[in-house]
Prior knowledge:
The protein is α/β, with parallel strands linked by helices. It has helices spanning 16-29, 48-53, 71-79, 99-110, 128-145, 161-167, 178-186, 215-234, 268-282, 298-305, 307-310; strands at residues 2-9, 35-42, 62-66, 87-91, 116-123, 156-160, 192-198, 239-248, 254-263, 337-339.
Amino acid sequence: MIASFVIPVGPNEPGIAGRARALRASMESASAGRELEFILVSDSPSGRAAEEMRSLPREGFSCAFLTARLGKGGSLRNAVPLTRGDVVVLMDADADLDPRIVWGMIDYVAAGRAAMAVARRISRPHGATRAALSAAYNAAARLLLRTGVRDHQAGLKVIEGRVARSVVPLIRTDGFAFDAELIARVSRVGRIAEFPIEWRESRGEVPGRGSHVVPVRAALTMLADLLVISYVMVRGSATRPVRVGDVLDAEGRVLAPEVMNVVEWRHPRLMEALRAIHYAVSLRASGWARPGRTAATIPSAILRANASSASSSPHVTVSPSVSVTRPSEVDAASGISMVPAWSSSRK
């Protein structure tokens, strides 16, 4: 069995090379000889983190760089198709977890007992404000997307390999709500197991490393994303892939086209309203908000600039060969809870 670990890397993450080495050593210590594949992906080909990443391929890591900035979700969407594992693990580099727990989740999925296993944080190093916003967001995700999952945001998700490579390329969300859409889409093809975990993060141990996310701004952005995801999935709106750049290796060679998914909206006014909310909140604090480029027009500018490549973009579909065992029992002894596969009649 091969386990593929996909690690998203932000543009300013000092110490990423050291944390990647530590993570691999930790996972290897409990691997019992099983093969591991590590892929680090960043949507910023320049900067300190990128420089550190380029030193890793000689040590057996794979690194991928997106030429267009899409965020964490866009990075994962474009990296997962590069994996070759029987199981795909999406994991934050700063998650400081017992490797035996991670391998327990991997073995659970590899045995066909679930299409996906997600961590459910039973404790976390967050303040009261972030905890309250997280609880509200998870409640909204359960309501709008009908997932049944209690924690959508934990940075550890284990997916059966064929399911991951079929479902992840279909995800529209590029930002923080990527995890919620991933869970919602996987729940359409199989069951999801939640593993309770004492959550720790190592980001505070790295000088200059810390969370730069403004909780309220992130919550508003993710809420706008949830509304779009709900519209797309519950109403069955179509999406289409558009090529926006390239996925490069550490030496600058093209590995694959970089793709984002665009919603085919039935109600253009709703699209414009959600677009304005999303980008007004999320991009004014980033490098996108520059003179001459307003928040509301950024998506259109991206699509116009890449319209010529849309016709040649890869069209991704869910493979009809995907078959997932759907267990009907709850493993009460381990605390693992099973979320039933989604159906249109679920309330």
